[in-house]
Design a protein that fits this description.
The protein is α+β, with helices and mostly antiparallel strands. The protein is 11% helix and 24% strand. It has one domain: Aromatic compound dioxygenase (Protocatechuate 3,4-Dioxygenase, subunit A). The chain contains five helices and eleven strands, in the order H-H-H-E-E-E-E-E-E-E-E-E-H-E-E-H.
C-alpha cells in the first residue's frame, strides 16, 4: 500500500531561492511562477500566457511542433511545496501528450479543453537551466469526479483497466512538457486539482521524484462547472479555502489560466535542486496532512 506521507522530492528553501535571485537577477525574475515573486511569496500578478497557443479542439492538438515549443523557453527557479501523491497514481507508462482519450475504445472525455505546459528547470550552483529528459506524469479526474485505473467503493466507481486522463511526457531540450486535457471535475472532500509527478536521475544516476498538485481559482472553477458536462453533478462541496491539502501551500500551486480557442491554457514553472541527492543530504520536503487525495 502506498504511504501518502512518504517524502518524494525537494524544493528550494526561501534562503536558497533568494541566493539564486541575487545571482540570476532579472532573468529569473522574468521566469517566476504565476502569482509568485522571486522570494516565493504570492504577488497576485499572474504571468501572461504565450501569445501563440495551440488549437484546443479535439481534432487539432498541440504537438512537439507547436508554437509553444519556442514560446516558453526561459528557465525558472521557483519555490514550490510538495503535496501528497494520493492513492490514485497508476504507473501506466502511457507516453502521450493528449491524455483525454480512453485507449481501449478511442472515446474522448468531454469537458472544457485545457492545454497544460510544464517548464522544468534544474538548479545548478547559482544558476538555472532547462532540465531535459525528465518524465512528467499527469493524472486527474474527469468531469464527473472519476479517475481511471482504480476502484473506489467510497466514491462508487471501478475503472480498473482504463487509462483516460493519464499520461506522461519527457521534457525536451527546453525543459518543456505539454499536455492536452480537460478542466477537471470534483469529488467529495477535495477542491478541483490536477496531480503531477516529475521523475529524473541525478548526475550520479540516483533516482529523483517530485510530486505535487495544481489548483485553479475558485471563481473560474464555478464558471466552468456551471456548464455541461459538469453542471449535472451539482455544486461541489469543497473549495480551495476548505481543502486540507490546499491549505499546505496550494496558493503557490495555482495555475494562471488564460482563455484560448474555446478552452484554457496555462504554463507552470518549477525548478528542481538535484545536488543534495548526490551529496547524501536530505532530498525531500514533505507537506503535512492526510485526508482525501
Amino acid at each position: 500500500m502506498k504511504n501518502d506521507d512518504q517524502p518524494v522530492g525537494r524544493v528550494l528553501s526561501r534562503r536558497e531561492a533568494l541566493a539564486l535571485m541575487g545571482a540570476a537577477g532579472a532573468a529569473v525574475l522574468a521566469a517566476c511562477a504565476p502569482g509568485q515573486s522571486g522570494t516565493g511569496q504570492p504577488t497576485g500578478e499572474p504571468t501572461q500566457a504565450p501569445s501563440s497557443v495551440p488549437t484546443l479542439s479535439p481534432s487539432s492538438l498541440p504537438t512537439q511542433a507547436s508554437p509553444l515549443a519556442t514560446a516558453v523557453t526561459s528557465p525558472s527557479c521557483v519555490v514550490r511545496p510538495e503535496m501528497t501523491e494520493g492513492p490514485y497514481f497508476v504507473d501506466e507508462q502511457l507516453n502521450r501528450s493528449d491524455i483525454r482519450s480512453e485507449p481501449s475504445d478511442g472515446s474522448v472525455k468531454e469537458g472544457v479543453p485545457l492545454a497544460l505546459v510544464f517548464l522544468v528547470s534544474q538548479v545548478t550552483g547559482n544558476a538555472c537551466s532547462p532540465l531535459a529528459g525528465a518524465t512528467v506524469d499527469v493524472w486527474h479526474c474527469d468531469a464527473q469526479g472519476i479517475y481511471s485505473g482504480v476502484s473506489d467503493q467510497a466514491l462508487g466507481f471501478d475503472t480498473v483497466g482504463q487509462k483516460f486522463l493519464r499520461g506522461y511526457q519527457v521534457t525536451d531540450e527546453n525543459g518543456v512538457a505539454r499536455f492536452s486535457t480537460i478542466f477537471p471535475g470534483w469529488y467529495t472532500g477535495r477542491t478541483v486539482h490536477i496531480h503531477f509527478k516529475i521523475r529524473t536521475t541525478t548526475a550520479s544516476n540516483q533516482s529523483y521524484e517530485f510530486t505535487s498538485q495544481l489548483y485553479v481559482d475558485d471563481a473560474l472553477t464555478d464558471q466552468v462547472h456551471a456548464q455541461e458536462p459538469y453542471a449535472g453533478k451539482g455544486r461541489r462541496d469543497t473549495t480551495n479555502d476548505t481543502d486540507m491539502h490546499y491549505q499546505n501551500g496550494g496558493d503557490q500551486m495555482l495555475l494562471a489560466l488564460a482563455e484560448a480557442n474555446g478552452g484554457y491554457i496555462a504554463t507552470f514553472d518549477i525548478g528542481l535542486d538535484l545536488s543534495d541527492t548526490d551529496t547524501g543530504q536530505p532530498d525531500s520536503f514533505q507537506q503535512p496532512g492526510g485526508g482525501p487525495p
